[in-house]
Amino acid sequence: MRSAAAPTASALPRLAPDHDVTTVPDWSEVVEHFREGLIVCDPEGVVRHVSPVAERLVPEVVPGEVLAATGVTALAGDGPAEFTHHGRRLRLRPVPLSAARRCWYVEDVTESVSRADALLAERARSLFLAVVGEKLGNPLHPDRAAAAVARLAVPTLADVAVLVLAPRSGRARWWRAVRADDEAPAVDSGVLPAAALPAAIETGLAGTEPHALDWLVEQAAEAGWLPGLDVAGATARVVPLPGREAPAGVLLVARRAGRWYDEADVDLVRAFAARAGAALTTAMLYRDQAEVADTLQASLLPVEPAAASGVQWGTAYRPAQAGLRIGGDFYGSHRLADGGSVFFLGDVSGKGVEAAVFTGQLRQCLHALHRVEAQPGRLLKLLNDALLETTQANGQGRFATMVLGVTRPHRDGGLTLTMAGGGHLPPLVLRESGEVEVVPLSGMLIGVVPDPRIGETTVHLAPGETCLLYSDGVTEARGGWRGDEQFGADRLLNALSGCHRMPAPALAERVEQVTCDWLAHGDHDDIAVLALRASGPAGRASRHLHAVPEPRNAVRSRELPA
């Protein structure tokens, strides 16, 4: 082919009606330098002139022969055409001349078409990888990410795609996508023992890319991964998916006969595998971190009070940051050898994870110290000493407020509560008469000074009476019409009016509910509630039916013995 600077046939001047190209030697010399070939025929269709470029591109056309007899179908038409001839891409443009003569310009466009096709293919690959990056950037669950990888590989990369994740606990999970005509790829999954994985998959999991050999297809067929795909003539590739230290898995792509993997296809599969590996690694890392976070959060959540003779417990807990599920409020209880129980509710400084870790330390200290000291005041001072030692060692000035008490059951079903206060809100007692009493209990913060003043008091609960402990997240909840008014102690007392017959769980739930209603979904501090109800004789709570709707004309339900 001539250089791009060579003139084209369109530069040929228009011929006079009585001129013949074959009779003008100067035109022949000019035509030899055209980038396009030139073929001229007389009115009878006999070839009169063929330029050197045309001779090279269409050697079947010979001067003196009828053009229609050359066998080149495109030359028999009347309009422009583009066709493949002898492995080259040719473009044909017919031009009518005077006296019914015709002229054809023939140009070799193989390289320009190849460049255009290569540019379109590269744009398609870039668009495909961009879509892959967008789709794989969302799933943070390994199963959903794996299913998305298999689905995206079909049909661009394969007729059948199988993703096998690295084995865990001796088992490997796989996902398969199969091409469906005019439909989204069908995706299914399964599990295989690690020992049953095909050799090609094991090689890929080791970080090596097997060669594209027939046995890859055979192994995939034996594993049952190529449904509806004729093994004869099919081709496959296995590409590792990069992970953190080892491949996150492998991708098996297979095509039916006639769709071979060339070098560009293999490069695209590898680029896809790199993005898939990054997405799967991220999803697995998120899963591992979520499992660790769930385990740690479970260990830091308030533990439900242990069942004790003569006590019915009720609890409610709502952290300030609902997504964490943990906070700085805590409660719990421990059984004593003499049949009583140590119970506590407190609030530490701060919020979130750091506060939750501090509550975990407090609960661990109480779990150990109650075995050596069961008197509430002395136990609270031991806890204060332990916290001072811990915070000084860590260089963190943290403190807590707390109510800590001991229950002693009576034979008549009542309870004696001996409580010590460490700067916390005073407990409330709901009497059988319906009256709500504020227990006069005060004291200093825990974890601030070496010898804090600890308040102590004793409360007697008759059967059916309840003692309520709560954190400042209840009274300091801000809401109301303007959203900045505190709930306050008075509203809490009013909310408890008439609730003296409620079981302890229902009472704790009511306190949480009225607080949240006041907040109206606004921000709030941690909320914790602990209710202790003297459950009556035999150590079991009485059942109350007053909250159950009564049928018409029925006698009002009364409190029934358990």
Question: What does this molecule look like?
Answer:
With 562 residues, the protein is α+β, with helices and mostly antiparallel strands. The chain has three domains: 27-111, Beta-Lactamase (2-Layer Sandwich); 138-294, 2-Layer Sandwich (Beta-Lactamase); 303-534, Phosphatase 2c, domain 1 (4-Layer Sandwich), CATH 3.60.40. 30% of the residues lie in helices and 25% in strands. Helix 4 packs antiparallel against helix 7 and helix 8 crosses helix 9.
Parts with pLDDT < 50 across at least 5 consecutive residues? 1-5, 10-19, 21-25, 539-562
- Broad CATH class of the largest domain: Alpha Beta
The CATH topology label of the largest domain is Phosphatase 2c, domain 1
Q: How many helices?
A: 12
**Biggest sheet statistics:** 5 strands, antiparallel
Number of strands: 22
In the residues, how many domains can be counted? 3
- Give the neighbour order of strands across the main sheet: 2-1-5-4-3
Give the N-terminus to C-terminus distance in angstroms: 105 Å
Strand content: 25-35%
Instruction: Name the CATH homologous superfamily of the largest domain.
Output: PPM-type phosphatase domain
Shape: elongated
Helix and strand composition category: alpha+beta
Mean pLDDT: 83
Radius of gyration: 43 Å
CATH architecture of the largest domain: 4-Layer Sandwich
Helix content: 25-40%
